[in-house]
Amino acid sequence: MEFGNVVNIAGFKFRILFYKPGYTPHYAEHVTDPRDGREKLVLADPHNRFSTIIYDTVRGVIEDEIKIVDGRIPNPHTAHMVMEKIPAINAEPGDILCPDRSGRWVVIDRDSHRIKWSLLMDDSEWPHDILPSSDGRGVVVTDYGAGGHGGFVRKVLFNGTTIWNVQMFKAAKISKVFGSTASGMHTSSFGGNYIVAQNNDIAGVYEIDENGCIVWQCPKEIGSSNNFWPFKPHSAFRMGLAEAGGNLTIMGLEAGGGIVAIDYFCRPRWGVMSVYSIYPTLYYKPSRYGLMETTHVFPTLRGTVAAIDWRGYSGSMIIELLEIPRTPLSWILSWDLDPGPRGVWLDPPLEVLDFDFIVVSLTNIGNGPVKWHLYASMQPILTEEHFDNLWRSIAIGTLGGGDTVSIEVDNRMKRYTFLRLRVDRGIEAVPSKVRTVVTWY
Which InterPro entries does the UniProt record give (predicted)? Predict the structure, then answer.
């Protein structure tokens, strides 16, 4: 471990962007200030200073702090610098858009620190985030809910008229999906405009389009394949402008701290994370890499990944990731899935060339038996357009109700490029359910 601005813990290397005793930012964004063209971090501290903070990253000084004084709600949980003039809400470039402590979403004047516009809804419990809508017609807001109920994602016109509403308990932070390049050939979108994190136990990340439809989510529903179980995600954003859906969604995991990148199919590609348990009671399990509670992830102006973790002695710390160690990552290939009378391939095949060890664990949680068959390929490309796909059987078996099997694949010699698993009912007419956990390293 190094002492200084760059820290290395067991191969997890990061640069400290902001840390100040007594300051507990929960949110940050890295922007070019429209007023002076300088790089700034816009911070939101909802738990200690109850303020929005503007930090000059080049000079290393706090340029301004706007206190949110009225009310008792722990806010602001987010704060966004207005980039362009929004006449309908009297917002000028450089002003701040955030939730306040009185149950409203507000625009705050950068100079006078006075509220210039506010939005109050009868059913709001704990306003959490607000962003101008991508079509310029209004705002998209989240409400966290309280007391085990409430919570929503909602698009609202500037006059307060609701356009659409998605009920979501503990709806947390929103990030915008960049969209497409001018040519239209490259895009960061999987069909939506906004990514919303739901800060619940095994909750998810949702991509929502301009009409309020959920077009992509992780995890999906019970009975599906390809899922990652995030532990209380509080934020997420889309990284990449690749064709054919080849982008990553970066998640921040509050419970125990963690930063994980998942692909379109909801499979983790890299990251650091801990485990999660409520037995005998709820305690977060800090990771061996020094993360304790990661409340935010965001892109920097350099295109790198940054995060906020509550690892400081008397404050949260904003870090920029420099190196990620190779760590074991677990995900759910089948989530209590019934193979059906015809059986099912748990596709797409697992790309394993990058991994040294792969463990595939199947548990039959149903009554009827389950047959399984694991295949491997040594070809670097799978396409039937030019040549046949060749598969080798490496493991096969049958599971009775309640039985478990783990198949360990040692791929240090890079023998295999793909794995493919098929599951079938042992008795065609008898339903069953199989849970398949993959851990790769």
Answer: Quinoprotein_ADH-like_sf
Determine the Cα–Cα distance for residues 265 and 252; give it in Å rounded to an integer. Answer: 18
| pLDDT, mean of each 10-residue run, the chain (441 residues) | 73 96 98 98 98 96 95 97 97 98 97 97 96 96 90 96 97 96 94 96 92 97 96 96 96 95 98 90 90 97 97 95 96 98 97 97 96 96 76 97 97 97 97 97 96
C-alpha–C-alpha distance, residues 93 and 87, integer Å: 11
Nearest partner of 207 among 221, 228, 222, 193, judged by Cα: 193
Contact call for residues 337 and 433 (beta carbons, < 8 A)? yes
Burial tier of 190 (Cβ tally within 10 Å: 0-12, 13-18, 19+): middle
Report strand pairing: 233-239 vs 225-227: unpaired
Q: For residues 48 and 30, what is the distance between their CA atoms, to the nearest angstrom?
A: 21
Per the confidence metrics, is the pTM higher than 0.90? Answer: yes
Give me 390's structure tokens: 């060749």
Q: What is the pLDDT of residues 3-61, one digit of tens each?
A: 459 999 999 999 999 999 999 999 999 999 999 999 999 999 999 999 999 999 999 99
Does the domain at 330-440 match CATH 2.60.120.1090? Answer given as: yes
CB 22 within 8 A of CB 316: no
Domain ranges of the chain: 7-325, 330-440
CATH architecture group of domain 7-325: 7 Propeller (2.130)
- Supply the pLDDT for residue 388: 72
CA dihedral (79, 218, 328, 261) in degrees, to 10, reads -50
User: Measuring CA to CA, which residue among 265, 235, 259, 263 is closest to residue 249?
Assistant: 263
